[in-house]
Amino acid sequence: MGVHDTAEFPWLETERAWIADAVRSDLPVLGVCLGAQQLAAALGASVTTGPSPEIGVGDVTLTADGRADPVLGPEGDSVPVVHWHGDTFEIPDGAVRLATGERYPNQAFRFGRLVYGLQFHVEVDEAMAAAWAPELPPEVTLGAEQRRPVEAVGRRVLRRFVEVARRG
To answer: In the chain, helix, strand, coil percent, each to 5?
Structure first.
């Protein structure tokens, strides 16, 4: 599903309003994949269909702001991730781009100190990869050797996000 599929999934509009309220209330928000697209839309940025789907294990490159970021920055210049998206977003006004990619230039952003949008997945563990396997295109696999670095990065990134959120 995508941000604009509100006829089929009317709750998407309600979710965007809730996200906007959370941001205005200075609550921590972490949007992943569709969540990042919803977050971007809630902050007034456009969300559009990308040039072609981006699916599978890959890398994103951190920007200068990304390398200085307390959540993503400790990972270095690039981050192994899992992609599974066909839509993309503009960076919302007032946000900073944290990561970029070859096909999709807007891969991650931060709005303020507590609000993060990640176009990619870092939370994919063995169980999630197994659950996703039947839904993936036949040429895409999330084998353990490729996926383990993503899972390790994900544990660190999510831990740092929680630490930043706790400090408020």
So the answer is: 40, 30, 35
Low-confidence ranges of the chain (pLDDT < 50): none
Find the domain containing 135 and state its range: 11-167
CA distance 61 to 22: 28
DSSP letter for each residue of 48-102: EEEEEEEEEEEEEEE-HHHHH-TTTGGG-SEEEEEEEEEEEEPPPTTEEEEEE-S
**pLDDT recorded at residue 2:** 92
Q: Which pair of tokens denotes residue 83? A: 């992609």
The answer to whether position 88 is within a domain reads: yes
Q: Which residue has the tokens 């949007």?
A: 31
Number of domains in the chain: 1
CB atoms under 10 Å from CB of 106, counted, come to: 22
Q: What residues are labeled active site?
A: 33, 121, 123
